[in-house]
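Internal ticket - ligand job 463, 4-nitrophenyl beta-D-glucopyranoside:
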Amino acid sequence: MAAQKLPSDFVWGYATASYQIEGSPDADGRLPSIWDTFSHKPGTIKGGDNGDVATDSYRRWKEDVALLKQYGVKAYRFSISWSRVIPLGGRNDPVNEAGIKHYRNMIEELLKNGITPFVTLYHWDLPQGLHDRYGGWLNKEKIVQDYVNYAKLCFTRYGDLVKDWITHNEPWCVSVLGYATGVFAPGHKGNKEHWIVGHNLILAHAYAVKLYRDEFKAKQGGQIGITLDLNWQEPWDDSPENIAAAQRGIDFKLGRFADPIYKGRYPESVKAIVGDRLPEFTKEEIVVLKGSSDFFGLNTYTTQLVTEGGDQEIQGNVKYIFTRPDGTQLGRQAHVPWLQTYPPGFRSLLNYVWKTYNKPVYVTENGFPVKDEHILPLEQVVHDADRVEYYDGYLNALLKAATEDGVPVKSYFAWSLLDNFEWADGYEPRFGVTYVDYKTQKRTPKESAEFVKKWFAEHVASS
Ligand code: PNW
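stdout (structure tokens):
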């Protein structure tokens, strides 16, 4: 029997995000985003770093495209920096043609090289102007209108060339890390704001999708959806409490966004615990948000074992661990504490998402930062065996989900093309298949880049 293969139209490539790679914060009329402000506050970022230079990709984007070409990808997922195209962010603020042109040039260059652009509209870099003017994501009426206006500008200027749109990247991170734990911009803490912000992110997404479907889709022929994040949650053992806990953990991380978007309502388990701090959708809004994603965009990195208990409402009062009942670790430890390699969890997750939401699944991020890679000499860094092991495991899990379980998986974007600015962790964790020397900006491919290229050459059917 011939080896199982993914269909010939399977899309694969690498993902990045504007603030993590671009640098050049003041170039050509760009104004600050909340991440510029946040990362410049002392004590927010490991090592006192910020995204002022990052991988210098605002200037080196042609080199990045050449690298993608060399890696044999079919697609590239990147995000637009809102404050490059509308520096102050709002619907009555001026549009910055230089910023518009930058992304237009890049999109054209990608297409010239046979690479399909997948564009994320919002990967966390809200224009500081909107945060200052009315509280940004906390202000429902204003932010929904301004976000839709920004989306409209992108559809208008790029939609003849871009056919795959992602409204938001990981609204869970935006709301919880930004407005509850405060480790991400804008650094607010508490147990109320993040429910409001999450709610407003859902509405902004839904109204942008409505606009695309009403005014652009017929003419431009693209698709639009959202990317949510979930690390698979596996009950620690088969006790009924821990099985229930894992489902509740999933509801608090994924269901709080996915259920409104695909089913038109919040999960009961969330409503029961959060009570009247959870905003309500109006009847009109429900009509707009239910079914407001053409696909299921999924970012995932690991699996967590779940037990009942704990008082962390934010995660549904469950606890996470990596140690099994027999004392062994779930998988290989990455450089960041929250990630261990566990491919079977990826297969379970793909099945769960398909069964629960019934949409084609686009894996939009998945990757691994090798432990201590930042202190290893380059000769060792490029032999990134632990990253290769990770991709080998996760890609084969995806293949099984697609071919044996029948999950319609349509894409796989590895995180990331380059080592880059890893948010609050600064430049220490390295997720790239390309090593970046931050002093010289020299890019050096790691062995994983070759591995991924070869894997897809062998496992995608020829057309
Ligand atoms: C995602 N966590 O973020 C983002 O989409 C990327 O920008 C980021 O670089 C990548 O994953 C790697 O971290 C996450 O704490 C940030 O569980 C934090 C968590 C998960 C994902």
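Auto-summary: The pocket of 4-nitrophenyl beta-D-glucopyranoside is lined by residues 17, 20, 169-170, 173, 229, 299, 338, 365, 415, 422, 431 (CB under 6 Å). The chain has a mean pLDDT of 98.
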